[in-house]
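S1.2 Input.
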Amino acid sequence: MPQGLERYIEAATRSNTRRSYQAAIEHFEVSWGGFLPTTSDTIARYLADHAGVLSANTLKARLAALAQWHVSQGFPDPTKAPIVRKVLKGIRVLHPRPEKQAQPLQLQELELCVQYLEQSALSAHQADDAPRRRRCLRDRALILMGFWRAFRSEELCRLQIEHIEVTPGKGMTIYLPWSKTDRENLGQTFHTPALARLCPVQAYQDWIAELGGQQGPVFRSIDRWGHASEGPLHPNSVIPILRTALRECGIPAERYSSHSLRRGFATWATRSGWDQKTLMSYVGWRDPKSALRYVDPAGSLPGQFAIT
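S1.3 Output.
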């Protein structure tokens, strides 16, 4: 491979995808004892050995990693063989498993989280506890922006200050150079309105004023002395941030994840009368099935907030 070409090929693959592919290859070679390159019969046995242990969706993801390895190394893709497709289909039939979904964050729960963070930030300020105050301001902005813009955790952690423009009292414009649904990496622009309550714009402004930065990641880790890192917050940090706020409010947090913000907004919007086309356009979904997956039909109808 020509020198310098590898970094462009690596850049074309999402970091999360690279990590999951690497883990899948290690599982096949190290945990199961397979050899690469491999054959379709071997892959069929690999699937059969993990039927009922791993979900069909997980096995499908492992197949994608194995396929990518073979293609990138110049070998024929053994995962496309009929025997592999038949075994995977049989696993779905004989080992049905309901898809696990995060609990959607309801508006009442969002309000409790924000109230707790605001009160905690105030008490931290009065106690001259700068690290706790900064975390509360950061977490309030992260949760509100994650909910009202239905961002994924990796999207929240990739937000850059220089890519956000605020119009006080009206809203803000957020530019993401790439996202999961932006397959061509053309970049997407999102608009977030200012709200009378639970406002993501005000929360963002308060946090950036506290951070004192004009560029770089919006959300960063904060050490014990209150110093914000130069690099972005890791996506895996979003779940413990949300769960900690929920626990402090007395809400059992185990069923909540970073997807709870996205599912919570989709459920709220649907229950508030948004049609599917409007919801898909606002969130950035292209596939109607994606939108339906995120909507909780049992969600409550809050009714006191509106986005126009």
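S1.4 Remarks. Confidence is low (pLDDT under 50) at residues 299-304.
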